[in-house]
Amino acid sequence: MSATELPDDRPAGLRRGEPAYKRAATAMLIAGLAVFATMYATQAMLPVLTGELNISPTTAALTVSATTGAVALFIVPTSILSEKLGRSPVLIACALGATLLGLILPLAPNAEWLIALRFVQGIIAAGVPAVAMAWLSEELHQDDLGRAMGLYVAGTTVGGLSGRLLPAGLLEVTDWRPALFALTALTFVGAIVMTILLPKQRRFRPKRISFSSEARAVLSHWRHPHLAALFSIAFVGMGVFVSVYNFIGFRMIDAFDLSPGLVGLVFLMYLSGTWSSARAGALSDKYGRGLIMSAGAVFMWCGLWLLAIPNLVLTLVGLLIFTASFFAMHSTASGRIGVIATQHRAEASSMYLMCYYLGSSVIGGIAGLVFTAFHWPGFITTAAVVLLVVVGTAIALQVQRSPGH
Fold first, then answer.
1. 317-337: b or e for each residue (b if 16 or more CB lie within 10 Å)?
2. What is the rounded distance in angstroms from the CA atom of residue 388 to the CA atom of residue 237?
3. Is 17 exposed, middle or buried (0-12, 13-18, 19+ CB in 10 A)?
4. Among 135-149, 197-211, 280-294, whose mean pLDDT is lowest?
5. Cα 364–318–179 angle (5° rounding)?
6. Is-contact 134 346, C-beta < 8 A?
7. Residue 367 and residue 4: Cα distance in Å, rounded?
8. How far apart, in Å, are the Cα atoms of 198 and each of 56, 89, 204, 370?
9. Superfamily grouping for domain 13-197
10. What pairs with residue 14 in β-bridges?
């Protein structure tokens, strides 16, 4: 992940219209679908897990936090490893390994085993978000990169959605073990198809890396105030976002008497994030990234307060605003990383993703304690107070007009 340039004699990047380009784009779409469905496979069934395994909501939420926490801890090391071993070997091994391990999850005899296996699954899955975009950036021609990158991002969004919707729907006719097995079996098949389709690497060249050089690169980013602020936005923003989705199912069942299958439909709100991410990019070009990021943070905070009102319609409206605003803020913030970090961009992007998933794990785990102690009103109030950190930071960056505004 150094700034070393690829040799000039490397083959030309794949162009749109070539069979290998289509295979690469399709393989990355499937990779995003399979692995992100695996990562969030238990989120929609948290209320069911509390009853089936006789555990608290806090413990049930650890089946999500354990995975995202492991991804956070290993995404940077895996990214560095791919600089030495190659993108394809890491990508294939991680996709196959994470989805294959998923087939064992339904056999977990208790919550402790389930959480432990989910943590191991996160370690293995970290390789996909760590290297997928790097693979595309290296192997595809820059003029035709955008479409394939968009397909991968779409795959991650739809994968995360299907990882929640499919188990939730199956819970209407079966218990959590068959529902989880059905999902993970599909993701394993997807990983196999991805492995078959993925073209051979042609442009990768191993780089000489060392712990000291990588540590210096990472520390240099944390010393940059604007980058450190963006890392904080990723940590807190994603933490609050995942926390709400971890416990919205309990709210829907307890307050509005909905079934687990119907509760799973709230994850369709993720589609608003697909739309808002694309719109945020266009609006950023017109009004500036800082302004759109700040607006996303403010609207996310407003949507969160609507969730506190004991009315189903207002709850759904609030969740829609909350979700769309989060993805608009996140996509804009992540886009600023590459502009502000003029050197060691790969390390900067990996650090942003590490904070993103670490926030999901740490804040998502602590949120369970808050939810158990103070129930929904106290949970929302606490989340809103924590989210003020994001709102304030985003507005401060906008006022300062940092690079990449």
1. ebbbbbbbbbbbbbbbbbbbb
2. 10
3. exposed
4. 135-149
5. 55
6. yes
7. 42
8. 42, 11, 14, 44
9. MFS general substrate transporter like domains (1.20.1250.20)
10. 140
The span from the CA of 317 to the CA of 288, in Å, is 27
Long-range contacts of 58-62 (CB under 8 A, 24+ apart): 58/365, 58/368, 58/369, 58/371, 58/372, 59/111, 59/115, 59/368, 60/111, 60/368, 61/246, 61/247, 61/364, 61/365, 61/367, 61/368, 62/111, 62/115, 62/118, 62/365, 62/368
Structure tokens at 392: 């304030």
Bridge partners of 140? 14
- Tell me if residue 116 falls in helix, strand or coil: helix
| CB 37 within 8 Å of CB 160 | yes
Tokens of 230: 């963006």
Pair of tokens at residue 399: 């006022």
In the chain, CATH 1.20.1250.20 covers 13-197, 211-405
pTM: 0.81
54 CA to centre of own chain: 28
**310 is written with which tokens?**
């004991």
CB atoms within 10 A of CB 29: 23
* Higher pLDDT pick, 307 / 346: 307
N residues, the chain: 405
- Answer whether 68's CB lies under 8 Å from 357's CB: yes
pLDDT tens-digit map of 345-395: 667 878 888 999 999 999 998 999 999 999 999 999 999 999 999 999 998
Beta-carbon contacts of residue 380 (< 8 Å; ≥ 6 apart): 304, 305, 307, 308
- Return the SS3 of 13: coil
- CATH architecture of the domain with range 211-405: Up-down Bundle (1.20)
Cα first-last separation, the chain: 26
From the list 49, 68, 42, 57, the residue with the least C-alpha distance to 370 is 57
